[in-house]
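User: Could you walk me through two proteins back to back? I'd like the raw sequence and the structure tokens for each, with a short line separating them so I can tell where one ends and the next begins.

Assistant: Of course. Protein one, sequence then structure:
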Amino acid sequence: MTKYLIKKFIPNYENTSDKDVRERYCVLAGIMGICNNFILFLIKLFIGSFINSIAVISDAFNNLSDMGSSLVSIIGAKLSNMKPDKEHPFGHGRIEYLSSLLVAVIIFFVGLSLLKTSFLKIFNPEKLNFNPILICVLILSVLIKVWMFFYNRYMGKEINSGILNATAFDSLNDVYATSAVILATILSLFTTLPLDAILGVGVSVLILFAGFNIAKDTIDLLLGKAPDKELVDNIEKILLSNKKIVGTHDLIVHDYGPGRIIASVHAEVNNNENIVEIHEIIDELENQIQTALGIIMVIHTDPISVDCERTNGYKKKVTRIIKKIDKALSIHDFRITDGVNNVNLIFDMVVPYEYDEKQTKTLVENIKNTIKAKEDKVNVVIKVDRSY
């Protein structure tokens, strides 16, 4: 059903890297969410009025409020797809992240509200009245919400959308809550324990946990988190596919929203290569990365001494010493210069973020002393670097 609707209403639906296609996915999911919640609202309002159940009528208006998450996804998709302007040259893609954060906040407050209500019911239990019509309505609600979870999650994966993933979990939370009501209502026939309140506490904790995780993941994106290893590997694979590129380092990835990634990297080349030829290769690699990964890439050419046996000899010795001290370390931009009485070994060393300033300083001094102890008349200059 979901795939049919995607093919029916989204032209060129397979090109999920296209910003307009992404917007159509979010709008379609949002419209489906509004329609489903409105249908549930009408059914529950009618049944609730027919059997004179305040609980069902209240749940009907809860479905009406659930339309808010779908509306947020539509508005977020529209705003995030606005063209770049003078004030926002990188576009408005991060609005989608803000929309996801808003849905996470909504989920979190729903969890808090349910937790408060459940605790009050534990100390002031209310008798549940078993009604077959009520159970059927709730089961229908669960089935529709399960479908909403699956189609939002499916579309979210197709376009890597945080807002649709957040909306999916919002639907799943409704499944948990309504299923708890069904279970508690059936079990109330056999016990006087306030099971609806007890199950409500458990469900509210799940909802709070889901809201927290969605908010955390979204805030990570807004703050600027480290790129996925798969993305880094794909970039390096393309760069190193050209034999003129002998190494890479200092990869920095800036995420300005889905489909709006800008990155830079240092590409190591032989310092004896023709600069015009290397420039053409770099241009071609930038185009390859943009075509294959949708990333605007800026490549800095870093000439290094590849054929100098003396430099390579020192580099191998230094690398061996560093790896023996700590396998998590790596070096780049290694070069040597001759002083009056010694040889200067100059290089950048990548240190993990887990090492604080004091640990790093001690580590650098240890490496310097170890190298000097094994190599006569050398001066070691280390620039500490971090992996982005």
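----
Protein two, same layout:
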Amino acid sequence: MNSETPPLLEYLEKKGITLEDLVNTALELFVPHPGLETEAKATEMLREEFLDALSDVNVSTLEVACFRAQEDAENGLIPGLSKERFMGRPGLVADELLGLAIANYIAGVKGIFEFTRFDQAKPGILKKLGPLTNDAIGGLVAGVSSNVYTRAFRNPK
């Protein structure tokens, strides 16, 4: 991987989300596994995996779409979805579906399982984000976290 900052990371930084926020959010639900026994090793592997995912144009497209949808919903621009209903919940499931799609794209079914953990706990940066963006970032964190655990299982060192 080159040392260039992925464009999606630059986009997220403009939204107030850093690579450290992403890593720390994943670490809040860290469970030691064979090949991934320490938080230091997890941090290293998470950083690598985040940089890889953040370099994927499809992840970029999905994430930006969610952030744009969040802005549109907050401004009452999504047909049939008032600002009050958007912020009031329950009833909206599109946010969950988008988060699941991101986790699934990055890590498959294992990512979906991990998304459920992150969506229920809302660790780290997730609790500070809106309904659509917390699931978008939750899907990213879940997919990356799942890939890290899978990689560690395959290559225990």
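The chain has a mean pLDDT of 94.

Let me know if you want the two compared in more detail.
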